[in-house]
Amino acid sequence: MQRFTVIYNEQMASKKWELFGSLQDFVGPSGKLSLLEVGCGTGANFKFYPPGCRVTCVDRNPNFEKFLIKSVAENRHLQLEHFMVAAGENMPQVADGSVDEVVCTLVLCSVDSQEHLLQEVHRVLRPMGETHLHCVLSGTPLGFRNSSHEG
């Protein structure tokens, strides 16, 4: 998996820089970008995240944690807040409205329910935040604005 990640990132680097280039624009009130990555794998996207980014990672596979720690050591510009073993469709450990951005790369094709995953993304997203769901195979970022929390 780690070898695949290196090769994949080399081939997709320009597309990832393009897709993740606007993440800093969605920094919340804290002044630091709070990002949730669903299906984080080995942390392949870390090098594309902006400096100071605080990342919470969710993955079904507990064995990825050791690779994440290595990836964080190689990407000192970000801070790993938490690693949670969970399915993206069920993330009760992530509080409602607690993240500025949600990134799902190469995940939507492997979840049990895309609808439930998107409901969870909507739930955890900061009010008036925006999420980028990346369909990397087609290179199309999908987004929606979460305005349901407005009072």
Task: Give a concise summary.
With 151 residues, this protein is an alpha/beta fold. It contains 3 helices and 6 strands, in the order H-E-E-H-E-E-H-E-E.
Overall structural class, as computed from helix and strand content, comes to alpha/beta
Sum up the overall morphology in one term.
globular
Number of helices: 3
On the 0 to 100 scale, the average pLDDT is 81
Oligomer: single chain
Helix proportion range: 25-40%
Note the run of SSEs as H and E.
HEEHEEHEE
- Order of adjacent strands in the largest pleated sheet: 3-2-1-4-5-6
Work out the number of β strands: 6
List keywords for this structure.
6 strands, 3 helices, globular, 151 residues, 26% helix, single chain, 6-stranded mixed sheet
Explain the layout of strands and helices.
Layout: H1 2-20, E1 34-38, E2 54-59, H2 65-74, E3 79-85, E4 101-105, H3 114-124, E5 130-135, E6 140-145
Parallel strand pairs: 1-2, 1-4, 2-3, 4-5
Antiparallel strand pairs: 5-6
Task: Walk me through this protein's architecture.
The structure is a single chain. Strand 5 and strand 6 (140-145) form a beta hairpin. 33% of the residues are buried. This protein has three helices and six strands, in the order H-E-E-H-E-E-H-E-E. It has a six-stranded mixed beta sheet with strand order 3-2-1-4-5-6, with helices on one face. The longest helix has 19 residues, at 2-20. The chain has helices at residues 2-20, 65-74, 114-124; strands spanning 34-38, 54-59, 79-85, 101-105, 130-135, 140-145. Mean pLDDT is 81; it is low at 129-151. The N and C termini lie far apart (45 Å).
